[in-house]
Fold these 2 entries.
Entry 1:
Amino acid sequence: MKDQLIRMTAANHQIRGFFIGHTGMVEKARQIHQLSPVASAALGRSLGATAMMSQMLKGGGERFTLRINGGGPIGTILCVGKQDGSVKGLVDHPQVESVYLAPGKLNVGAVVGTDGELTVIKDLGLKAPYIGTYPLTTGEIAEDLTAYFMHSEQQPSSVGLSVLVDVDYHIKAAGGFILQVMPDIGEEVLSKLEKQLLQLPPLSQLLEQAEDVEELMHLVMLGFDTVVTERMEPRFECDCSRHRMEEALISLGEKELREMIHEDGDAEITCHFCLTAYHFNRDEMETLLQEALSPGKQQV
Ligand SMILES: [Zn+2]
């Protein structure tokens, strides 16, 4: 299934939502971070949710962050997305040992844990970002996000997320959805939707069946008239750059920079999200030190 993210409505706008196929995105994350199967599943589900929730940022919204920490062996899962479909993400312990609920069925909840919370940060380009948190209940991520939407945003929702990992650790398929009902939804439509979601086969099974994300939507929304209102390509893409790393070094300040130059002469900084290493030699470090000393920098 090719990577695609669609925005849709159903039942004459009484239901709205997103569907995503993001196999390529998770495979890229797996290769960069050398993820174990269960880490691929945990980060993959979070990347899918982040890609979809980034599309919910109101106009001008700049950045969406999802942080999950349940005290489990994987540590913190951190994903950041933008409205253009780019998402980056990491986990503290990418090599966490895989545990299984059944043969082939990864136990994501066991490595994420439930002793903690999920945090959503919406940077809307205003002074203070919106920050919402909710305690984790299962560590399975989709269920936790459903609870988050209900209790923190008072928005009844259904979230499905699934990542299928092949025996050779490649990502076989990844996808998901977020469905939300509007306040004016009719009783009949609501109960039809609840019934449909209850009898839904496991999402992993639908992912193997569907040729593309639109077919996935039709399988999930069986019996509903659906309209796709937007299509885009989600991708694992980091926004780090040499310039941003320079800014980070300068912001360390004079004392720290002098120490680095004195001790090592040069410096290498690695981006945690994409593991790109940026090397700065002694001359470049001296230039950055001069910049840190220039008066204009005090306001940055
Ligand atoms: Zn990066």
Entry 2:
Amino acid sequence: MLEAMKQGQANAIITQTISEIERYAITHFQKEEFFFQRFNFQGSAEHIKEHQDFREKVSSFKAELRTGEVTLTIELLYFLKDWIDHHILDIDKQYSECFRQNGLK
Ligand SMILES: [Fe+2]
């Protein structure tokens, strides 16, 4: 995305990135939430709330993209960096022991 911004191609890349993020959210969140229920994971309510907030934020990015909001790319980069640092590298790790104990690798 940074390279695309430098070359003035941000909107094309951002549209593609948002589609990929939506696809990731649909498949990945569904799998996690399925196993939360199946294994009765204790932290599921807070975790599912983060997924929902993520979906809503992605929807608002899509709406901003349609209006040509210029700060969108930087905002999206920060949002994704925060998602990776906070959710994937921290929050998602919290269910790994529960999943492992239930036989999931
Ligand atoms: Fe998650």
